[in-house]
Amino acid sequence: MMAAANPDSSAYSPLIRQYLDIKSRHPDSLLFFRVGDFYEMFFEDAEEGSGLLGITLTARNNGGKRDVPLAGVPVKAVNEYVSRLLEMGRRVAICEQLEDPAEARGIVQRDVVEIITPGTVLEDRLLPASRNNYVVAIAGDAPFGLAVVDLSTGEFELREVAAADLNDELGRLEPAEIVIPEETEAPAGPWHLTARPAWRFDASLGDERLREWFGVASSSGFGLDPARDPLLLAASGALLGYLDEVRPAGLDHLRPPRVDRAGRVMYLDEMTRRNLELVEPLRPGEGASLLALIDRTRTPMGARLLRRRLLRPLVVPDEIAVRLDAVQELLERAEERERVRGALRPIRDLERLAARVSTGRAAPRELLGLGLSLGALPGLATALAPLEAGRLAELRSGFDPLRDVAARIDEAIDPDSPHALKDGGVIRSGFSAELDELRGVRGSAVDFIAGMQVRERERTGIDTLKIGFNRVFGYYLEVTRSKLDRVPEEWTRRQTLTNAERYLTPELKEWEAKVLGADDEIAKLEARLFHELRDAVAAEVGRIQATAAQVAEIDFLACLAEVAAAEDYVRPRLSDDIAFDIEEGRHPVVEAAAARDTFIPNDMRLDDERRILIVTGPNMAGKSTVLRQAGLIALLAHIGSFVPARRAHIGVCDRVFTRVGASDNLAAGQSTFMVEMTETATILHGATERSLVLLDEIGRGTSTYDGLSIAWAVTERLHELGARTVFATHYHELVGLAESLPRAAAFNVAVRETGQDIVFLYRLQPGGSDRSYGVHVARLAGLPPDVVGRAARILHMLESGPWGAGGRGAVLAEAGLGQLSLFEAPAPAPGPDGDPPPSGAPDPAESADIAAAREVLEKLAGIDLDGMTPLEALNTLAEWKAFGDA
Ligand code: ADP
Ligand code: MG
What we know:
Elements: H1 2-5, H2 14-24, E1 30-35, E2 38-42, H3 43-53, E3 58-62, E4 65-74, H4 78-87, E5 92-97, E6 110-116, E7 135-139, E8 144-150, E9 155-161, H5 166-173, E10 177-181, E11 193-196, H6 203-214, H7 230-246, E12 258-260, H8 270-275, H9 290-294, H10 300-311, H11 317-332, H12 334-344, H13 350-358, H14 364-375, H15 377-384, H16 390-397, H17 403-412, H18 433-460, E13 466-470, E14 474-480, E15 492-496, E16 500-504, H19 506-538, H20 541-567, E17 573-575, E18 580-585, H21 588-593, E19 602-606, E20 612-616, H22 623-639, E21 647-651, E22 656-660, H23 673-686, E23 692-696, H24 704-721, E24 724-728, H25 734-740, E25 744-754, E26 757-766, H26 774-780, H27 785-799, H28 808-813, H29 844-862, H30 870-885
Parallel strand pairs: 1-5, 7-10, 9-12, 10-11, 17-21, 20-24, 20-25, 22-23, 23-24
Antiparallel strand pairs: 1-2, 2-4, 3-4, 5-6, 7-8, 8-9, 13-14, 14-16, 15-16, 18-19, 18-21, 25-26
The protein binds adenosine-5'-diphosphate (ADP) and magnesium ion (MG).
């Protein structure tokens, strides 16, 4: 707009010119421009803001000049409005008055003090407690350098991600905001993107920024090397630059970066996270996630750490063993564990409180909350004292219980402090002699005024006389209408009510001045003392964060021990080989949801000689459950947790892949065959001999023979790769494959047939199942009996064709797979297992269908497509349709 380009334009008042000047520096944010008790938006911001927030759009009188569109929100309610704008993905620049309007000469000085964006918000209400709120900068391409910051806790991590893994990595982090270079391709996903000039993503600039920000001479202290890590430096630089931009006042609580090198942790892709329902159920609201089951943490820091670690399992057996040792000791020493968990309970969100103190946002009650949390630390140290496991001993010996900081807060803040500083009563009595004296003065003045009520009643004989106070008139004497004749002459009337009059006296005003004067002084002094305290605590933010990280880890370990105790888990053995040997394994989540002791445990063994298990069995037999159970046990073991089994020995996996067939996975918009094949491709490209691959019903999203052929070929490839694979399938045809591949074995989930019904036993046993039992399941599910009967006959018909029993493997192995044809004549044969037999003669209705179909087929073969007009084709189609309808 013209005006924006020319802030000095004389068409505007000085205030609007100031606005335009500031706005020109923040074109991509809504500018909240402080004017008195309101934040005002002008021009396009007013129009957009009023639309987004549903507030009134008016016009500001522009000093007799052109009117300016205006929309304002009260300062008191600003958080509410900002949070709504953030949810809509907008950014808000908060522009404050930098001087007291009463003292300003000319126009009040103003500037932007912070920009609130989805990824940099610090308001507690806008942050999820048990998850991190990340802002991520992405540098480079193939591979990418990621700088990841959670401003609400001060965490800062750097890692390199291969091109193919970027989307999965972002899916894991779920960043609230992503900073990318201008004119680069945006990563796919529902992300809030912020583009910044490409030059800001420069490695040497990044190195410089890092050194400057953390006041170090070289970034090598962070494990960074400019020659090796240009992408990480570039991403750091861009992110720090961005943080500088949104928080010009600085961020002292940002911790030095932790470089997360590939090779230490297992990379979990999105399909595996989703299909194993690690942190949320596949269908929201249905079932529970693994995280929900095992999250017995006592603090928000612990909860966030558990979630992070669950999504980044370890791959180094020794590191895992360190965690397992700690969990084991806490499991075995139940009393000590209870003490540790008890000591964790009063500890609040130290990380976020520290961040709020450090950024000057903590209100009195938050500081008090921090103090109380710190006060609980010595108790935690005591509870840890008897524990001996290596990691626990380490945590204990490096533990800083922050007694000095706790004491400092405790001394100063009144335990009954109100939430807001302005309400007064924040500082404890006894902390400042000066404050106590002022409060004394105020108190005696208030007492004196209260005493006046009695004295004046006596003096005037007005026995209903009351002394009251209101904000407008201050103290007053109130006399009911019936006693007005007794009011002394020297009283001044100030206010008339229906039943009473209110008066002032010089004496009352004099004492009131003492009270108000003291109030003023008290407020100033309290504010000063509070800010001094907050600054002093802010200076210790590094220590608080270090302790918070230790608390989080203690909570994490104690939580895993608690789960192991409550759910009866065992310590897994992790090794460097290919073993995968689970005895009496259970699915942790299904087991927890099942009625007591009704879950059937299962053994599962893979090793050098047996890399692939083909698990068949009817629908609902428990194939998916036993398969996911293998994945969940493996992942739990890799984060250092005990596992739901009697015994477990697992050779460390470099990856765990899980693929669930399209028709089993109805998550919104994902159920296409293309997605299924893309995911399968990812597995075939990524799996190694060290991987664990779990395939559930792949190939289901297309026609039977298509699907079966793909499943077949995929299995052969995985067999070549040697990846430990469990493949659950209702294609019992794959059993033959298991028999022909040397390192594959067929298992099935047992069912027992009783007459026309089957009973699910949920027991995994060697051997293939030779049938799908789909018709049985259809009957169980209550399909009408005549439909079930008809299905049984069709099944029989199909199974007796050339691809029927016996010849299946041979037929399929040949290249020329025919698609399923319903038009072949049935070969009469006795019905299997008591299914209603067609008893020799074909059903007459069936014969008529087949005859009609034959006729159509014959005509189809005789058609000369090239010599046909579209109209003729349509007519032919209509003719054939008549056969079907007849
Ligand atoms: P499939 O994949 O073979 O169709 P699922 O694994 O989905 O079957 O299992 C179907 C249902 O059977 C599950 O929802 C669960 O309630 C029950 N189930 C599965 N495995 C077991 C088991 N081992 N013990 C008890 N119930 C089980
Ligand atoms: Mg299934």
